[in-house]
Amino acid sequence: MGYSGYYNNYQQQPNHAYSQPVGAYQNTGAPYQPLSSFQNTGSYAGSASYSSTYYNPADYQTPGGYQNSGYGNQTTMWNNGNYSNYSSHPYTNYTPDSTGAYSSGTSTTSMQYPQQYKQWADYYNPTEVSCAPGTENISVASSSTISCPIPAVTSGYVTPNSQPPQSYAPYWRPESNSSSIPSLQPGAVTYGAHDGYWKHGAQSSQIHQNNTIQPNYQNPLDLKSSYDKFQDQQKTVSSQGTDLQFPSPQQVAPAPIQTAPSLDTRRVGKLQIPTNPRIASNLTLGLPKTEKDSSTNSAAPKPAYISVSLPKPTEKVPSNDAVNSILKPGMFPKSLRAYVERALARCKDDKQMAVCQAVMKEVITNATADGTLYTRNWEIEPLFPMPDADMVNKDSSECSTNDSVLPKYKRSPSRRSKSRWEPLPEEKPADNLVPNSSHTEKHSSWIHNDRDRKETKEGKEDGLRNTKWATFLQRTSSKTPQRYKKQRLAEASIPSENGDASSDSDKEQGLTAYYSGAMAFTDSPEERKRRENRSKRFDLGQGQGHRSENSHFRPKNAGAGNLYSRRASALVLSKSFEDGGNKAVEDIDWDALTVKGTCQEIEKRYLRLTSAPDPATVRPEEVLEKALLMVQNSQKNYLYKCDQLKSIRQDLTVQRIRNQLTVKVYETHARLALEFGDLPEYNQCQSQLKTLYAEGIEGSHMEFAAYNLLCVILHSNNNRDLVLSMSRLSVEAKDDEAVKHALAVRAAVTSGNYVTFFRLYKAAPNLNTCLMDLYVEKMRYKAVNCICRSYRPTVPVSYIAQVLGFSTYMATNGESNVRDAESLEECVEWLKAHGASTIADNNGDMLLDTKASSSTLFMPDPEDAVAHGDANLAVNDFLARAPL
Amino acid sequence: MAYMSMGEAHRRITDYLNRFYDAVSSQDVASLKSLFSLSSNSPFLLSLADALNLFQDANRLIKQSDKYSLYAEILVPVFRSLQNYKQGNLVEAYQAFEKSANAFIQEFRNWESAWALEALYVIVYEIRVLAERADKELASTGKSPEKLKGAGSFLMKVFGVLAGKGPKRVGALYVTCQLFKIYFKLGTVHLCRSVIRSIETARIFDFEEFPKSDKVTYMYYTGRLEVFNENFPAADQKLSYALKHCNPHSEANIRMILKYLIPVKLSIGILPRDCLLENYNLLEYSNIVQALRRGDLRLLRRALQDHEDRFLRSGVYLVLEKLELQVYQRLIKKIYIIQKQRDPSRAHQVKLEVIVKALKWLEMDMDLDEVECIMAILIYKNLVKGYFAHKSKVVVLSKQDPFPKLNGRPVNS
Known about the structure:
Strand order of the largest sheet of chain B: 1-3-2
Oligomer: heterodimer
Number of helices of chain A: 47
Strand order of the largest sheet of chain A: 1-3-2
Pfam family, one (chain A): SAC3_GANP
Number of domains of chain A: 3
Shape of chain B: elongated
Pfam families (chain B): PCI
Number of strands of chain B: 3
GO cellular component, one term (chain B): transcription export complex 2
Number of strands of chain A: 3
Distance between the termini of chain A: 43 Å
Low-confidence stretches of chain A: 1-329, 388-523, 539-583, 809-814
InterPro entries (chain A): PCI_dom (IPR000717), SAC3/GANP/THP3 (IPR045107), SAC3/GANP/THP3_conserved (IPR005062)
Radius of gyration of chain B: 29 Å
Radius of gyration of chain A: 34 Å
Structural class of chain A: mainly alpha
Strand content of chain A: under 5%
Strand content of chain B: under 5%
Helix content of chain A: over 70%
Protein name (chain A): SAC3 family protein A isoform X1
Shape of chain A: elongated
C-alpha cells in the first residue's frame, strides 16, 4: 500500500500540506536534510552538474548533487514504474511552472535521465498545474497498459508493497520529510508535490537508492551488469555518499540496504533501461534474468513477491557473475557495444527493452560460445527482430528450440521473430496481475498517480480507473490479433499526440526522432538519449566545478562511459557505415538476413521500413499471392491498390522472392499505374521488371518492352536513350504486335505525323493507349499548329476532330452521328481553349480559320494542375485512402 | 621462355630501375614513357616481368637504394602491375598500375616543366586500355565491370593536374579525349559536359594551342555529341573541322569522321559524291543518298531497314530517318516538274490523288489523310512553299521557289 498511499499523498500534497503523506511515511525517519539542501532540491538550476553525479558517487558528496541524485532516483523509480507511461505521454501540458522547477531539474538530471526527467516533469506539471484533461490520463493509461504488464516492473512494484515498511522506509522518508517540513513546501506551492517528491529523493533513504543506481551505471559503463558487484557498490557507495553528504541518512541507509538491494536492482535495471540504451544494453545481461525471476515469481502467489526481494539478488548473482566474466569491460569489442545500443535503441519501453536485452544476452553469449564475439562484425550484424517478451520469458533459456523454430537465423539463434509492433504486454505478467486485485490496484495507483493528483478529491474516479486498468490488463493478457491492432493504434496515437503538443522540446523531439529515422519512434530510447545528450551539453558548461571535484570517480563511470556512449550513440550509424565500407558487400550473408514472413493477413498497408523487417508483419508467398488477387479484383481506387501493391512489393523484397509472382506483382502495379497515369510509380516497376526479365523470369516481356519504348519516346525525349532501347530490341521483339505499335508510334512522333499517331492511338494494344494518352495533348497542339500553318483558308473542324482523334468512329459511318456531334463539340472546345478561331460556313459547319489562328495558338495551363505539382495527390483521394 | 638465371633477373630489374632513374634525372621523356608502356608488349618489359616473377625481392632492391626508394611509390606498383600483366591478371595489373600512376602524377605535379607530358600520356592511355581489358576480365567472371569507370575518375584527377596556367595545360586535351573515349564506351556521355565546358570556357586554354591530333579527336567526339543532340550545324562544324585537320593518311580516322559527317550533311541538304562513299567504304549510305536524289521513299526505308543495326549502334538512325521528309520533298518536286512539262499554267497545283498515286507506285500504301498530313508537315517545315486547300485536296505551290533548298540549314523543326 505504501506506494499507492505515497502517490495519493502526492496528489493531495498540492492541495494541502503533507500531513497525509506523513502518515503514510512514518518511516521517514528523523534524519533530515538541512534546509539548504532542500532549497537546492527546489532549485535545480545549479544541479545541472548533478546529472553527472548520477553516475558518480562523488556527486553525492556535494550537497547539491546529492539532492539531485535523490531526485534522479525518484525519477528513476518513477520511470521504472511508469516509464512506459511517460514515453507514451503526449507531453501536451508542458507548462512554464514545470520549467521552473523541473526544467532545471531536467537539465541537471539530464545527464542521467534527461529525457525521462523531462517527461516526468511534463507528466507532473500538467497534472498539477492545470489539472490536465482526462484525456491525457487516459492516453497515459492506455499506453501504460501496453507497457506496464512488464513482469519486472510489476514485481518491482509489488514487492515494495508487499514488503515490510522497513525496506520502504528509506523511500518514503523523503515524503515524510517534506511533510514534516512544511516551511519548505509553502515556497514550492505549485510544485510542492514535486518538492516533496524530490526531498524524498534527497533523503538518506535515497542515498541507498542512489547507491544502487550507481553500481548499475557503473556496470553498464563497464559493461558489467553484475548484481553482486552492484550490491557491493551499493554498500560502498552508500557509505561514501552518506558520509559525505548525509551523515544522518547513513544510519538509516544501512538497514534498508539489505532489503532494498533486490528491489533496487530490479528498479534500477528498469530505470536505466529507458534512459540510456547504451547503459541499458549492458544491463541486458543481467536483466533478462531478473525478468525471468520476476515472471516466475509472479506466477507464485502474491506473498512470493515479498520473499522475492531478498532471494533474488542471490539468485541472480551467479548468473550475473557468469555474464560478468563474459563481459569484462575491457573485453568487449566496441562494435558490440554499438550493436547492443543499436538494438536497444529500437525498444520503446521497458518491456521491450528488457526482452531485447534478454535476446542480446543470448546473442552475446552465443557469440562468445562459438568464439565469434570478436571476429564477428557487429557493425553490420543485423539486428534481431524485436522479440516478443512472451517468447523471451518462455524461451530465453531455450536457444535450441528457438533455433529449430527459426532456422533462418543461423547466426544468432536467439533472434526473435516478433516485431517491434508486436504488443509487448505479456500474458504472464498480465495474468498475474489481473487476478490479483491488490496488484492491479497498486498498479493503477502507480499509473494514475498523475491523474490522482488532479483528482485528489475524487477517489471514485481512481477506483474507476483502476477497474479500467484491470480490465485492460485482462484484455491485454488475452492473445488476440486485436491486441496487436490495438497496440498499433496506441502507437499511432502517440505521434499524433506529440504533434499536438506545441512545446518546442516536443517538436524538437519529433524532429530528431524523425531524422534519427532508422531506429526511432518518437519515444524511443534513442531519442531520449539524444535529448539527454543535448541537455548534457549544458551540463558540461555548468558542471565543470563538480566535475573536477568528482573527477576521480568519473573516469570509470560517467566520464569515459558517458562520453563514450554519447559519441557512440551519435556515431552508431556513421560508424557502421564506415566499417561497413571496409567489409565487402559480398561478404554479407544475405541468406542469413532474409526474412521469412509469417503474417497471414492479406491486406496490409504500405509502410516504409525503417528497420529490419519483422517476419510477423511480412506475408509469405502464398499470402502475397492472395493479396495480389485481392488487389486485382478490388473495386477500390488506385491509391488503395497502389498502397497494397507497394506493401506486397516490400514483402517480396524483404523475403527476396524473385519469381513469376514478383513479375506478376510488378506488372500488375505497372499496369495500374499506367491506367492511372502515375508515371513515377510506373517507372519504378518498369526498372524492376527490366532486371527481373533480364534474370530470365517469364512475364509479359514484350508488352513492357513496348511500354518502355513508348515511355522513352513520349516522355523522356532523349534521343540517345531511344536509340539505345531500340538497338536492344531483339528480333522477336520487333515482331511483337505491341512493340511494333510502339515503334510505329515513335516514327509518327519523330516525323510529327499526327494522322498516323492518332490512328495508332486508337488501335493501341494493351495499355499503350494510356502512355499515349499522356502525349495526346502535345501531339494535338503540334498538329493544330501545323494545320494552321499549312492549310488555307479554312479546315473543317469535323476533319480536325476526326484526324486528331476526337471522334471514335470514322466520319463516314452514318450511325455515329451522335457521337460525331459530341466529338465535334469537344474538338471545338479544345480548339477554343487553345486560342484557335473558328467560323461557321453557310451550312453551319464549323471551320477553323487557319490564318487567324496561326498566330493566336497557345498551350493553356493544364486544368488539373495543383500547387504541389502532383495531381494524383488530390485531397479527396488522399482522404479517401482507406484506413486500415 | 628460356630459363633465366637469378643474376640475369637481377640485372634486368636493376636495368629497369636505372633506366627509370636516368630518364627522370635527365628528363628523357622518350625513355621514360617506354618504361610505362605495358600494352606495347615490348620485349624489354616482358622480360622484365619474367625477371620479376623469378626474382621475388625486387621491392627490396628499390628500397635499399636511395635513388630508387625516392620513387618507390611509383616503381613498386609498376613492378606488381607488370607481373600481373604478364600473368594475365588484368584486374590486379590495372589496380597496381593506377596506384603507380597516382604516385606518378604526384611526382609530375612537382616538376615545373612539362617535359614528362608524353610519359603522362602513355600512362593515361595505359590506364584506359588496362581498365577496358580488366573490365572484360571482370565481366567474364561475372563480376561487375567497374574499372573503366574508375579509370574515368582517375583521368579526371589527371585533368585537374594539367588544367592550370603552366606549360602542362597543353596536355589537358589529350586527357579529355581519353575521357571521351571512356565515357562513350561506358555510355555515360553526359559526363563529357563538364570537361567540355572547362576546355571551351576556361581562359587558360587556347584551343589552337593544343596538339593537332588532340584537337581532331576532340572535335570528332564533340561533333558526335552534337549529332546526338540533333544540333546539325554545330555537328557539321565540328566534324568538318575534324575532317579537315585529320591526318589524310589515317583513313580509318577519316572514315570514322565521315560516318557521322555524312548523315549530318545529308540532313542539311548536302549530298556526298558516290566516290567518297566508295573510297571510305561507307556504302551503307549510298542507297540513302540515292533515295534522296530520286525522291524514292521506298529505297530510303529499305536502306534504313537493311542497316538498321549499324545505324542504331552508331546512333545515326534517327538522323537518317528524318531524311524522309526531304525524300517526300524531292518526290513532290518531281511531280511538279512533270506537271510543269505538261501544263505549266496549272503546275503549281498538285492534287493529293497524284501524290497518293505516286506513292502507291513506290509501293507505299498510304491513304489520303496520311498523305495530306505529310503535305501539311512539309509545308509546315518549309520544305514546300505554298498551302494546302482542304476542300479541293490540292497542294497549292508557291510560284516562286516552291521547293526551297536547305543550303546548309537544317529542316525546320
